[in-house]
Amino acid sequence: MISNTSERVVAGGEEAESAGSGPPPLFLLPVQIVLARLVRHIAVRRPSLFNRIGLHRSKQFLIVPTNLPYAMLLQPDPVRPTLRAVPKQWRDYDARITGTALTLLAMIDGRSDGDALFFSRDLRVEGDTEAVVCLRNALDDLDGSVADDAAALFGPPGRMILSGLRRIRRERSDT
Amino acid sequence: MQQRDTTILTRPNLVCPAGTPAALRTAVDAGADEVYCGFQNATNARNFPGLNFTRDELRESVAYAHDHGARVLLATNTFAPGDATGLWRQAIDDGIRCQVDAVIVADIGVAHYVATRYPAQRLHLSVQAGASSPEAIRYYCREFGVKRVVLPRILTVKEIKAVHDEIPCEIEVFIFGNIGMMAEGRCSLTNYATGISTNTDGVCSPAHHVHYVEDGERNLTTMLGDFTIDCFAAGQSAGYPTICKGRYFAAGRDDEYYAFEEPRSLNLTSLLPELMRAGVSALKIEGRQRSRAYVQAVVSAFRKAVDDYLAGREPELDSLLALTEGHKETQGAFGEKRWR
After folding, report:
1. A116–B294: do the CB atoms touch at under 8 Å?
2. Are A62 and A96 in contact (CB under 8 A)?
3. Which of A29, A157, B246, B300 lies most in the core, judged by the most C-beta atoms within 10 Å?
């Protein structure tokens, strides 16, 4: 995490302007609808998730899968949770978590240890370290995985895709 | 498969960490005999954000453990400062109400409270108490009825055996995980850097003082407050942002170096038979701050290794290197005194 202050990281200048803290492209609208539905679904199913996040519920977590075209911005507010796609260079966040999509999935699934991923440099954390630690611990205390919740929302196709991703992850970690 | 003489091996308890109820259930399911955990405050030495148990969670977790034949130990192993001792008494009261099987204490005042208020309660002496000699341990046994001592990580196996022969209580030793400076219960480095005490606030390198800075070439700098702890080149394994594991410049040296100790984790897998022969009753895994994945992997590996040794089999030791700090392991002082 970059700066470990309680103040949100907002970069100024041209880069920030081009990276955009403004609205993402219109073609992402269907994705935004799905993500919004997804985070509300998880909030309803997993109310205990928010207890461990504590005072960091209002924080903005920028989750950056390095091998996907967009990042996700999460605000784990139990009353009004938000999750939306944003450009990877999004500058308005409290904490940024970066890794490959499979690395992030392994963490969410409880299959990989966050500290070990940090030691191996597979996971990067910038910004508010404490907020990230709380989010990590909150996710780790869940039985099962929010990835399963997300997949279930989309029925058999969703479960099939998740199963495929997990298979790829296992194969890669075996090699 | 090679057979081993088991006539003098006694079955030790495998004592496993849990920072959350899910981790506790994972530890029990993976074969833990005992699980240690703490409340969400300064009364335990892993007072990290988002970690630890509420009273309700502890009560439910104790029930789960007991249903599966495991025991729960409550870590109240920090030192109560003058203006807040009530917090520690409350933790003891609540833990005993939750029916924990033992409480782990470091502070003499807390030990006295348990011994006088709950004389039937099983009491363990934390590693934080730093009791390493037979005389010191016997004092705790005599005055507070301590039933088990967690030895500081400063003794060789031979010395552990010598201590064992001179004390009236069980011995617990760490066998895996983070290994700190050999001044357990007395380290003030975090306090110096942040004003927050490991010993009384229960947190080493508090997360809200930790900064990670990575440049465009993926070189990583870890900081605690205003202090740079270490710099890792791209691709180089990183360690925790703790002062005792940092690299520093010093007078008389041309390059930065590990002034205290290198970031690496304790792993005593190959010493397990010797520890059992030395009379160690409980083998402890560090890592309440780690994930379910860590707990599952480490507890399973040690469950299998201990059971194999007891059955006279030479275990195929699973590599736990991926979970170690800096991807390096050590036997610490258990192997040789020169380690630092």
Report:
1. yes
2. yes
3. B246
Average pLDDT, chain B: 92
Q: Please name each of the domains of chain A with its CATH number.
A: 13-144 (3.30.1050.10)
> Given an 8 Å threshold on Cβ–Cβ distance, is A52 in contact with B214?
no
For residue B48, which residues of chain A lie inside 8 Å, CB to CB?
133, 137
B173 bridge partner residues: B283
Pick from A107, A121, A134: which is nearest to B49 by CB? A134
For B271, the 3-state DSSP assignment is helix
Q: What is the mean pLDDT of residues A90-116?
A: 92
Cβ pairs bridging A and B (under 8 Å): 114
Residue B324 in tokens: 């170690």
A95 to chain B nearest CA, in Å?
11
A residues 134-153 closer than 8 Å to B (CB): 134-138, 140-143
Q: Residue B176: which H helix or E strand, with range?
A: strand B170-178
Query: Tell me, what's the ipTM?
Result: 0.90
In angstroms, rounded to a whole number, what is the distance separating the alpha carbons of residues B193 and B204?
10
With 80 as the cut, is the pLDDT of residue B116 above it?
A: yes
Burial class for B152, CB neighbours closer than 10 Å (0-12, 13-18, 19+):
buried
* Contact check, Cβ <8 Å, A110/B51: no
Distance from CA of A127 to the nearest CA of B (A): 7
Q: Which of A110, A118, A121 sits opposite B293 (nearest CB)?
A: A110
In CATH, the architecture of B13-179+264-335 is Alpha-Beta Barrel (3.20)
Report how far residue B339's alpha carbon sits from residue B332's, in angstroms, rounded to the nearest whole number.
Answer: 6
**Using the 8-state DSSP alphabet, how is residue B119 labeled?**
T
pLDDT digits (tens, 9 = 90+) for B248-305: 998 888 898 998 888 889 999 999 999 999 999 999 999 999 999 999 999 999 999 9
Domain boundaries, chain B: 13-179+264-335, 189-258
Instruction: Say if residue B238 is exposed, middle or buried (CB neighbours under 10 Å; 0-12, 13-18, 19+).
Output: buried
Kindly list the distances between the CA atom of residue A84 and the CA atoms of A20, A37, A78, in Å, as whole numbers in the listed order.
Answer: 14, 10, 16
